[in-house]
Here is the input.
Amino acid sequence: MKVRDIQSVIEGWAPREIAWERDNVGLQVGDLAADVAGVLVALDVTERIIAETRQKKANLLISHHPLLFKPIRSVTPHSWTGKCILALVQGGINLYSAHTNLDFTRGGTSFALAQALDLHDVDFLHKSYQLQKKIVTFVPADHVQKVADAMADAGAGRIGNYDRCSFRTPGTGTFQGNAASSPTVGKRGKLESIEEVRLEMIATQWQLPSIVRAMKGAHPYEEVAYDVYAVENKSTDYGMGIIGELERPVKLKPFLSRVKRALGASGLRCTGDPDKRIRRVAACGGSGSDLTEEAIAQHADVFITADVKYHSFHDAGDRIALIDAGHYETEHPVIQSVVNKLKQDLQHAGEQIPVHAAQTSTNPVHYV
Here is the structure.
């Protein structure tokens, strides 16, 4: 299995197209054509993480935070970034980063945080993505299933937990081929009328080119008539933050202890009445305080995130309990999610490549 195959697994789950536009996700150092001997998954890239990658005999390091985020002018051992790049190259280690695309996908960073907190009925807190198109084509009735299958195999027709969704309406199509045409049905130069089916399927915008190719490849006509429409649907697969429920209500004070224990946090920054009853919980791994108003609008009792500014605590007031549990602490649970995803897909493919969660802490913040 090649590095590009691991990339396909990750980006099939967390497509790079949903990443923040100024983010830098994907292969950072290395070769997509390289064979993968082993994988280490970590939150950050540091010299100690690279050493652990070598110790595990892995040659693919997957990090959440990109090593290369801003343009660099040189690669020398006189900078932290340069040291890491040189260590990766000298050790024959490929580096791949999945950052905000992993934050914004179902099952990603905030969902891993929700799992660590044992939340139920979890969904996105903010559904911001309008990524779908509707593709419509017109097919002779005896070819509809073949065309629909080809489109579905390319990614069309997926709605939430359902695949191969379509709508089909019978109708009459007309056409008249010119002298250069080779019609599948009828004769050139003659107006033809044929019973067809209008086939409609939903498609994610970045899959559209491959879906159109698949549709044309399976369609019997020389010239394929099709329409693509923009739709206003909010994506069910991509969004920001999460909101869920505790199994039973608990007061804020014991809930804070629960959060510390679940995330391995040394301390929390928080505001709110210690006797406030907590049932509905919003959360966003990493820097998510911009979603506080959304959490309030969705009647969350508490919002857990990181990197909260002083004035943001003031702004929350008594409308919601606000908890800053730390950047590392709120994002670290996703490491195991990535490991589990890779192991599952590798096992399904019959591959025996070892995948490890990094044991080296990369948290630069210490409490004294």
